[in-house]
């Protein structure tokens, strides 16, 4: 029964996300097409490369909105036999394609602007030109606000990128308006230079968006807030001895998964331990919407010999490098096993750490073999 309600909630959340994403896509598509047509017509009549660049930028925004529609439509499809974790990552793929398109257009208008600088021409100014540009700024301010508001509701990187792109367009259109005003008042032909700045601005933002979406597709680290929420919740369970090796990954913004090692008293029964970690997994999904899998690590806390060896090992590890963190400590016969978390800027290489620890442990506890698993965690 619990599984049914979990699936039911996931389906409802997916539906809401898709519905909001499609709404944003349609609103963006309609407003961007209106802007493209208006800017294109006045840019063509005025002979302005900066206005034409701004018009084509609005056309790419229309393509972006279309890709957003397609992306959310596919991302909203339920899981199937070929995609057991759903299709939510397609939203990121569509955002990546949008960023490529933006970058390509920026490159094309960089060349056009350079050509206009080399062979400048006067802009044919008219009152309608100023009216259309001012209206387009207002529409883009509304559009950016709309994207950001809906992005916040569903935590969508794609809509956040679209919102930032709209704010960028406010800047570029304002620059075009200033260019036309300067030429109208002074006769200075700065259209090509303004077009060049707009093209560079588009290129910069396109490259930044490509970088962000590539990181998302490769698997970027969770945010500090997400990690803090999970660690705080795990630390709140008084029945467990500790936790380590928290790993987090996702298959789209609404499909988050994690695994963690939970340390428990080794005198517990299997049923007792299972009840505890089952409750932790249930709480994680209910409170944080994270599918958590717990691995049990039994700890012989009542064994005096074990406690003595562990205390000594911790002391030796701190002597080698205070930044090192130890977990998964086990003892069998004459062998000591433990994992060592290595910080990004460790004082020694892994082989050097192994040698130093073995040497110091031999002096402290005798002929124990030290077996170390090095854990280079980038979540620290």
List the main descriptive attributes of the protein structure presented here:
about 375 residues, alpha/beta, Alpha-lytic protease prodomain-like, Alpha-Beta Plaits, 2 domains, three-stranded mixed sheet, disordered N terminus, transmembrane, membrane
Task: Write up this protein.
With 380 residues, the chain is α/β, with parallel strands linked by helices. The chain folds into 2 domains: 209 residues, Up-down Bundle (Alpha-lytic protease prodomain-like), CATH 1.20.1510.10; 152 residues, Alpha-Beta Plaits, CATH 3.30.70. Helix content is 66%, strand content 13%. The strands form 2 sheets. The protein has a 3-stranded mixed sheet with strand order 1-2-3, covered by helices on one side. The chain has a 3-stranded mixed sheet with strand order 4-5-6, with helices on one face. It is elongated and about 90 Å long. The N terminus is likely disordered.
- Helix count, per DSSP? 10
CATH class of the largest domain: Mainly Alpha
Integer average pLDDT: 80
- Please give the CATH architecture of the largest domain: Up-down Bundle
Summary of the model, kept short:
With 380 residues, the protein is α/β, with parallel strands linked by helices.
What's the topology here?
Elements: H1 2-46, H2 49-75, H3 90-118, H4 127-154, H5 157-186, H6 191-218, H7 224-235, E1 242-250, E2 256-265, H8 270-288, E3 290-299, H9 304-320, E4 325-332, E5 335-341, H10 350-365, E6 369-375
């Amino acid at each position: 029964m619990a599984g049914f309600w979990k699936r039911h909630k996931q389906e409802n959340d997916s539906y809401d996300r898709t519905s909001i994403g499609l709404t944003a896509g349609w609103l963006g598509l309609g407003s961007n097409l209106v802007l493209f047509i208006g800017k294109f017509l006045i840019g063509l009549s005025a002979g302005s490369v900066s206005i034409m660049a701004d018009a084509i930028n609005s056309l790419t925004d229309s393509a972006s909105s279309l890709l957003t529609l397609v992306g959310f439509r596919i991302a909203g499809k339920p899981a199937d036999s070929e995609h057991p974790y759903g299709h939510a990552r397609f939203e990121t793929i569509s955002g990546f394609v949008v960023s490529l398109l933006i970058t390509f257009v920026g490159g094309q208008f960089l060349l056009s602007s350079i050509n206009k600088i080399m062979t400048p021409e006067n802009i044919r100014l008219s009152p309608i030109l100023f009216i259309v540009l001012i209206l387009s700024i207002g529409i883009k301010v509304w559009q950016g606000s709309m994207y950001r508001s809906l992005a916040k509701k569903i935590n969508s990187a794609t809509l956040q990128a679209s919102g930032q792109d709209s704010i960028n367009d406010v800047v570029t259109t304002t620059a075009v308006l200033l260019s036309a005003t300067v030429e109208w008042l002074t006769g200075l032909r700065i259209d090509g230079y303004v077009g060049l700045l707009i093209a560079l601005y588009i290129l910069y933002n396109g490259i930044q968006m490509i970088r962000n979406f590539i990181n998302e597709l490769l698997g970027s680290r969770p945010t500090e807030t997400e990690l803090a929420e999970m660690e705080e919740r795990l630390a709140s369970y008084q029945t467990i001895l500790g936790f380590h090796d928290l790993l987090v990954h996702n298959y789209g913004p609404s499909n988050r998964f994690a695994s963690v090692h939970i340390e428990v008293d080794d005198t517990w029964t299997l049923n007792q331990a299972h009840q505890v970690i089952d409750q932790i997994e249930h709480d994680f999904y209910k409170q944080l919407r994270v599918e958590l899998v717990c691995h049990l690590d039994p700890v012989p806390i009542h064994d005096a010999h074990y406690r003595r060896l562990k205390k000594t090992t911790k002391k030796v590890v701190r002597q080698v490098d205070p930044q090192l963190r130890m977990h998964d400590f086990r003892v069998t016969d004459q062998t000591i096993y433990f994992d060592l978390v290595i910080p990004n800027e460790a004082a020694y290489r892994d082989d050097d750490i192994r040698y130093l620890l073995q040497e110091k442990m031999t002096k402290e506890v005798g002929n124990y073999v030290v077996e170390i698993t090095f854990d280079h965690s980038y979540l620290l």
